Amino acid sequence: MSTRTLPLLFINLGGEMLYILDQRLRAQNIPADKAKKVMNDIITTMFNKKFLEELFKPQELYSKKALRTVFDRLAHASIMRLNQASMDKLYDLMTMAFKYQVLLCLRPKDILLVSFNHMDAIKDFVKDTPSILSQVDETYQQLIEIYTPLSNGEFQLIRQTLLIFFQDMHIRVSIFLKDKVQNSNGRFVLPTSGPVPRGTQIPGLIRIFSCAGEELTRLQFNNGGNYSSAQREGSFEIFGDRVTKLGTNMYSVSRPVETHMSGTSKSSAQHTKVNTVPNPLAKEELNLLSRLMGGLEVQKPGSTDTGFRVNLFATDEEEEEALISRPDDLSYGIVNIQATKDQQANAELAKIMGEFTESGEQSPSASSKGDDLLAMMDGL
Amino acid sequence: MFHKEKSIQIKNSASALYNNLSVLRIAPRRLTYFTVVHANVVNMVSASWDGLNYSHRQLQSKEPNVATSTSLIMQAAFCVLPSRDLLVVSSQKGIQMYESDGSIMVYWHALDTPEAPTEQAVFARGISAVSDNYICVGVSSGAVLVFDVPSKGSNITLSEVLEEHKEAITDIAAECSGSQERLASLVTADDGGNVCVWKSGEEFQLLNKIPGLDITCSSVKLWKGTVLAGYGNGQIRLYEAVTGILHAEVNAHARWIYSLDVAPFSGLLLSAAEDSFVRVWHLAMTPETNSVEIAHLHNECVTDTQICGAKFCDGDGYAFAVTGYDLSEIIRYVQS
């Protein structure tokens, strides 16, 4: 539907990913310098100029599979390694968090405020590194340029597009269950109380007018809820109080974050899903994906001294158990590039990797770079 | 006033789209059809009145070729004409018209979709039968396509394109009171809250334009010459169609309204919004003073659900049905 949804989806999911990784790095007592390197590397990759250029082009939303591939790559942009089970859990947490934020936004355009909350936190993560900071600032400018002129109707279309992407996801997240924002059936609590959105009046008043425009009668009715007046407007600029708490870091208090797999898969199977095609990934989507991935720098996998593994579970045993017991309909089915018979698309990927090296020069070994990428994606 | 009845299960959950429920009552066969949109699929359920038989069918948006990305459906609606009923499905790629049971597609109209995606999304949304032989469908550019529908067969033709709106059409409705002497036959609404009133005919005539204030009008109805409009700021407004005079303004909901419906014989009005509430109202006309009044009758709260569709199941408003985002059921309420 809306061709402007992908940047918001990516930035908000990316922001949630950083919140979670930051919490896990601390919980696992990773040395500060290594932790900082991981965060900086990931943020640098996220805000890579070429990558963002592709991202901000008007386009339809990717499938869940394709987007997961992008985030797998992003999570491995540094010396940190994640096993499949931890990556699955990370992605579950990211997506459920953003789904919650989108659902609970008071107005569709508040999604932009949520995005700014994520951006503000990302900026704070890299405040000591001027080079990355400038990349982040440029992205603020782009967001403001593209999104602030949009009408409320267009924002609602973006929101509806995001809600289709998140449709039927009901993974239970322990932090949400504890805070009572999610029910035990995985559905979010939508309160019928609290402040109304800006521009909306508290429901209850009926006004009848004469043909001349004078108010003839006022009637009140019971709205069945417990609403209060709207809060003040949040800032849509680079700096400022966003007012809404949606999109701020809910993991700052160190709490173990678990997801529950059981009881979340629906009994009525979905016969058709958005973007489901006979091949694992349609050719056109593969082309789009390869253009996007072409902008993602990949760090050389660190030697065993500097590289380390992060676990999103409390113990290694739990992580292994989670991998085995994950229900089939909740698996993300990571893109297996080797498996597609589409030679041309593979060649595309290899070409793009060849165009882009860490030093910015033309790489002589274009094909080996392409193989690296394919091998890495296969290994995910 | 109303109590909840047994829900109807559907194969997929409802997507968050305006007016995401359509109902067709088939009295001779003692059946009611319901349609609910899920992404690129229309879920149809045929429910027998005795509550014993349910049959399901799914319709997909037509794909010109498999390689291109899926076409999401924006709306599915039954169009009742004197000689036939059709099911119209509007999507990102075009407009499909089926026999009302969804068995055969009788017409396909492709939208002009650009080669590469543009900043402006392209889709069709807003569907209504008008007068005896027209079906109108809105487009994201603001255009309203008028199709001429013969009493039978597939010789449906595009008769006119109404170009008055500059923003994406959200909803379209025809005069539903059944009276022939009303001047206004059609009302169209857009993303900016602008509402246009038309007289149908070989050439449709614009009678009036009610400006919006960048507050989206997501759902609109036309009854006894009165425009009933639901807005993104939770308000319902009643306007006299031809003059644009504001009869009433209601602070009805705490969130974006997604659906309005009217029961033409009794003057009951149904409103549903993202705030989880469905509200029932009563409309009263006083022709002597040319006034229209609205009174609140009843609330239903669908806990933890953002409602996206609400429709009366019959012309008196004896029963109504509701759909919500992520909900795989059609919830029904009946008068006590």
State the main characteristics:
heterodimer; A: 380 residues; mainly alpha; two-stranded antiparallel ribbon; 8 strands; 7% strand; B: 336 residues; Methylamine Dehydrogenase, Chain H; five-stranded antiparallel sheet; four-stranded antiparallel sheet; 29 strands; globular
What does this structure look like?
Chain B: WD repeats lie at residues 250-291. The complex is a heterodimer of chains A (380) and B (336). By secondary structure, chain A is mainly alpha-helical. Chain A contains 13 helices and 8 strands. In chain A, the strands form 4 sheets. In chain A, strands 1-8 form a two-stranded parallel sheet. Chain A has a two-stranded antiparallel ribbon with strand order 2-7. In chain A, strands 3-6 form a two-stranded parallel ribbon. In chain A, α1 runs antiparallel to α2 (32-46) and α1 crosses α6 (110-125). The longest helix of chain A has 23 residues, at 5-27. Mean pLDDT of chain A is 78; it is low at 262-281, 335-346 and 348-380. Chain B is globular, with a radius of gyration of 18 Å. Chain B has 336 residues and is mainly β. At the A-B interface, α8, β4, β5 and α10 of A face β22 and β26 of B.
Question: Which helices and strands, and how do they pair?
Answer:
The complex is a heterodimer of chains A (380) and B (336).
Chain A: H1 5-27, H2 32-46, H3 49-55, H4 64-75, E1 80-82, H5 84-104, H6 110-125, H7 130-147, H8 152-165, E2 172-173, H9 174-178, E3 193-195, E4 205-209, E5 215-220, E6 226-228, E7 259-260, H10 283-293, E8 308-310, H11 316-325, H12 343-355, H13 366-379
Parallel strand pairs in A: 1-8, 3-6
Antiparallel strand pairs in A: 2-7, 4-5
Chain B: E1 2-4, E2 8-9, E3 22-26, E4 31-38, E5 41-48, E6 54-60, E7 73-80, E8 85-91, E9 94-99, E10 105-110, E11 124-130, E12 134-139, E13 144-148, E14 157-162, E15 169-174, E16 186-190, E17 195-199, E18 205-210, E19 217-223, E20 226-231, E21 235-240, E22 246-251, E23 257-263, E24 268-273, E25 277-286, E26 291-301, E27 307-312, E28 319-324, E29 329-335
Antiparallel strand pairs in B: 1-29, 2-29, 3-4, 4-5, 5-6, 7-8, 8-9, 9-10, 11-12, 12-13, 13-14, 15-16, 16-17, 17-18, 19-20, 20-21, 21-22, 23-24, 24-25, 25-26, 27-28, 28-29
Protein name (chain B): WD repeat domain 54
GO biological process, one term (chain B): cilium assembly
Keywords (chain B): Repeat, WD repeat
